[in-house]
Amino acid sequence: MTHKTKVAVLISGRGSNMEALVRAAQDPACPFEIALVLSNKPEAGGLITAAAAGVEALAVDQKPYGKDREAHERAIDAALRERGIQVVALAGYMRILTPFLVNAWEGRMLNIHPSLLPAYPGLDTHGRALSAGEVEAGCTVHLVTAGVDEGPILGQARVPILPGDTDHMLSDRVLEQEHQLYPATLAAFVRGL
């Protein structure tokens, strides 16, 4: 059995990108295993999905920490280190990280974003792309740095914007690409470690 890189996926909701990573990790040739799925919200649907797939699912609820985001992240960091996690993949983790967690996992934390960065960082990416009259959209996997959605780009997938597209239609097509791009980019990344 060859050694597989232990990856934790951080989610806040249903975790469809997490599901794509878990599916990819089931391939014996995949160089990573999803060793943990962690959410800041105990009610996140993705926790149930992860547990059903045989992956440890853990909630580190942000509520008891109030406004002390770093204390919350220290609890997350401790959970990651206890499990020997080597790489962190953010997948719909809807919380801006403090310098503590970003620095603790520098060079080993990836995120997927639903735009062709550096265009449209932050939220409402599809609506903003449509309003601007863009002809294509897409998704980006990047390393996490202190600036929101500013880290080095590891991979991108492009999606044409079609006449009559709505936010929802475009989002669905981009998400299909995310589910292919993230596992492939993560695999390439861990092979290079």
Euclidean distance between termini CA atoms: 19 Å
Question: What is the radius of gyration?
Answer: 16 Å
Q: Can you write the helix and strand succession as a string? A: EHEHEHEHEHEEH
Task: Tell me the number of strands.
Answer: 7
Helix content: 25-40%
Strand arrangement, largest sheet?
3-2-1-4-5-6-7
Q: Report the sheet-strand fraction.
A: 15-25%
Give the overall silhouette: globular
| Overall pLDDT score | 97
Which stretches of 5+ consecutive residues score pLDDT under 50?
none
DSSP helical segment count: 6
Characterize the biggest β-sheet. Answer: 7 strands, mixed
Structural class: alpha/beta
Pathway: Purine metabolism; IMP biosynthesis via de novo pathway; N(2)-formyl-N(1)-(5-phospho-D-ribosyl)glycinamide from N(1)-(5-phospho-D-ribosyl)glycinamide (10-formyl THF route): step 1/1
Organism: Caulobacter rhizosphaerae
Family: Belongs to the GART family.
Binding site for (6R)-10-formyltetrahydrofolate: 69, 94-97, 111
